[in-house]
Amino acid sequence: MQLNQIVLTNYRNYNQLTLDFSPKLNVFVGDNAQGKTNLLESIYVLSLTKSHRSNHEKELIQWNKEFARIEGNISKKNGDIDLTMIVSNKGKKTKVNGLEQTKLSQYIGYLNVILFAPEDLSLVKGSPQHRRKFLDMEIGQINSQYLHHLSNYQSVLKQRNQYLKKSAYNKTHDAVYLDVLNEQLAQEGSFVLFSRLYFIGLLEKWANTIHESISYGKEKLNITYKTSLELTEEMTQEELFHLLMKEFKQSEARDLAQLTTSVGPHRDDLVFMVNGQNVQTYGSQGQQRTTALSVKLAEIELINDEIGEYPILLLDDVLSELDDARQVQLMEFIDNKLQTFLTTTSVSHLNDKLNIKPEVFYVTNGEVERMSEDVDG
Known about the structure:
It is found in: Cytoplasm. It holds the Pfam family SMC_N. InterPro entries: DNA-binding_RecF, DNA-binding_RecF_CS, P-loop_NTPase, RecF/RecN/SMC_N, RecF_2. This is DNA replication and repair protein RecF. One of its GO terms (biological process) is SOS response. The protein is an alpha/beta fold. It has 2 domains: about 1-110 and about 310-375, 3-Layer(aba) Sandwich (Rossmann fold); about 125-305, Glutathione S-transferase Yfyf (Class Pi), Chain A, domain 2 (Up-down Bundle). The protein has helices at about 35-50, 105, 130-140, 145-170, 175-215, 235-250, 250-260, 280, 285-305, 325-335, and strands at about 1-10, 15-20, 25-30, 65-75, 80-90, 90-95, 100, 115, 220-225, 270-275, 275-280, 310-315, 340-345, 360-365, 365-370. A 6-stranded antiparallel β-sheet has the order 2-1-4-5-6-7, with helices on one face. It has a 6-stranded mixed β-sheet with strand order 8-12-13-3-14-15, with helices on both faces. A 3-stranded antiparallel β-sheet has the order 9-10-11. α3 (about 130-140) packs across α4, α5 (about 175-215) crosses α6 (about 235-250) and α5 (about 175-215) packs across α9. It starts with a strand and ends in a 5-residue tail after the last strand.
């Protein structure tokens, strides 16, 4: 798939902007705080309806304006599609070919993107919450039902936690009502858990192959799902449901004492092992960055496997965080395979790393000048 054109209205520091893109490599060049990352972010928001930089959507709207709008035309194997994402004080509105979508989960998945930003290098070393968010965003792109069940799970989880606090305040609880919440939570949680385990199995297959190549055959990468549940690879969704029901019931006394739900997918994590050693705890910074790079590149192949076409790759100033060897490996992987958008403060350092001629956009204070040229020009 590819993004042919984007139109921004009242978005960040852009009043009105229309850009047409190359199907290969597009480079946004500019000093810091000029708006190049805003352009990359707008593609991400068009795809996933939320920013990777902020949880406050009103920040996307230009100062003193009532809304921000992103419009994009994409080409997929089945034809062209027009997407629209509008953010206002009233919330979000999405359209596909002019038709408003009633749920965000119906919209997400039309445009698939993989983002690799400096903060993604902390995927390995960062918090479990960061890794759960990674799982949720990436699975949601290839399985719209996942986001629906995840949202339901989070809603029931909130109800259960509120009831635990209420029960502690009243010094009594309704066991029947808690059983109802347990069943609802297990129903939604079993879908979330089953989807995650399936995704991780595919991700590990691709990530290990890529990691072995990047490390010149010296390292083997394994990805495991860390949970308090006693899982087996053969478990069905129904078996996961019964397992969660058992765990929620057994943890009731502890949960009532701690005023929170202590088990479930919202507590789980990923573990990355290189040559049998936990790279999060014992790996060098180089190993951790190679692992993060392998995982990101694996996502690209995984999505192509699942939907039959490559996603769009967004690289937000990530080259400056990688050494020369990893930069070369990344650019060789991209070469003519998928449409890529890259932000950087200079194109001169790309000289020896590109085999294709990029489309270069110079960004200065919210103004964009397009210039097709050799990177050393």
